[in-house]
Amino acid sequence: MLLERYWNENLESIKRFLEKIHSELIGKTIFIITHRNADPDAIASAIALHEILQKVKIRSYILLPEGMNEISKQVMEKLELGEKYKYSIIDLRRGERLLINIDMLIIVDTNNPEQLGILAHYISEKPFILVDHHQPGKLWRKAYLVISDHNARSTSEIVANIALLWGHDLPKSISTLLLAGILYDTRRFIYATKRTFLTVYNLISFLGADYLKAQSILQHEMPIPEKIARLKAAQRIVIKKIDDLIIAYSHVSAYESSCARAILELGADAAFIISRHKEKIRIVGRAKQSFVRTTGISLGRDLMPYLGELLGGSGGGHDTAGVVEATAKYDFKRIINIVHKALEKMILSSSKQAL
Ligand SMILES: [Mn+2]
After folding, report:
1. Domain residues of the chain, as ranges?
2. For FRET with 227, which of 13, 56, 138, 334 sits at 20 to 30 Å CA-CA?
3. How far is the CA of 63 from the centre of ligand 1 (A)?
């Protein structure tokens, strides 16, 4: 059968896991835990396992060492799961009291105890089952049972296959959540393998996952002030050219890096957004990879520190992203001129070097 062929490597450990939840783990209490700042892959894996355990009458709680990240919160809200798991997802304060009576842990989407934050020291004495898709880490050796496959592109992919092999229904929202976990970790299938697609096919066909819904709940929703800042930045663009390079300048008072990214998407090779914050000015720069390649100029290493000095402050960053904070009291027009002259000079001298 399709599933069995897929799961050759992990089939045995999944079967053992399913055996255990139908025998020795019945009546026990289990904590499902995951890494700090739980992402949708971690949350989906934890909740789907929690659902499976509930169905076989094993009491379980999901303990998040330091909560979940923003996108996970959005996903939970959009699937209307927040309310449903209000009592099942707990924080460390409540977890600490419950921990004494815990018989077993399931650690998901984590290969090293460091990723568990302060939780790591609480759980060092407890037996645990590891469900993970990272390279084998420190947790491997100590695990009571390992269901791991570093060829799987997400833990949700592994958990989906546990659910499929288990053979019972999952609520549609949970199957969709697993699919969202897969989409998130594969960056919407950029890193997918044949196995990912097979799992997704099974998840949709047999467990009722909703693909369009899974896509839409991951969509980042931009706050209205950010949209307005981007549009204002676009409205105020000053376009300049150095040879074939298009350099764009603008000014806004918030969301500078979002605005700079938006302007690169509009077509600029590099964008600089200037903002004033009380006595300080800030210049946020973004450049395309091709800009760094052709000019040999790194914003963080070359341009921004130089501008920082020039404007009475400091600057730094990475090749394609940098920032300057300074005290110069010039107006925007003057700052734009200073930045552009500096950039021109640098490009000229670095292309001379290249010759
Ligand atoms: Mn993951």
Report:
1. 2-218, 224-354
2. 334
3. 17
- For 224-354, CATH number out of 3.40.50.300, 3.10.310.40, 3.40.930.10, 3.40.1360.10 equals 3.10.310.40
Q: What is the pLDDT of residues 243-274, one digit of tens each?
A: 999 999 999 999 999 999 999 999 999 999 99
Helix (H, G, I), strand (E, B) or coil at 30: strand
3 pLDDT above the threshold of 80: no
Q: How far is the CA of 205 from the centre of ligand 1 (A)?
A: 23
> Residue 256 has which token pair?
């500078």
Cα of 274 from ligand 1 centre, angstroms? 37
Q: Which residues is 245 bridged to in the sheet?
A: 242
pLDDT digits (tens, 9 = 90+) for 46-82: 999 999 999 999 999 999 988 999 999 999 999 999 9
pLDDT digits (tens, 9 = 90+) for 115-129: 888 888 877 788 999
Q: Rounded to the nearest 5°, which phi and psi values hold at 110?
A: -145, 135
For residues 95-133, one letter each, b for 16 or more C-beta atoms within 10 angstroms of the residue's C-beta and e for the rest, the string is beeebeebebbbbbbbbebebbbebbebbeeeebbbbbb
Q: What is the pLDDT of residues 157-180, one digit of tens each?
A: 999 999 999 999 999 999 999 999
Domain 2-218 has CATH 3.90.1150.10: no
Please tell me the distance between residue 223's alpha carbon and the centre of ligand 1 in angstroms: 27
Checking if the pLDDT of 354 tops 60, the result is no
Cα separation, 318 vs 28, in Å, equals 50
Identity of the residue numbered 176: T
Q: 348 CA distance to ligand 1 centroid (A)?
A: 45
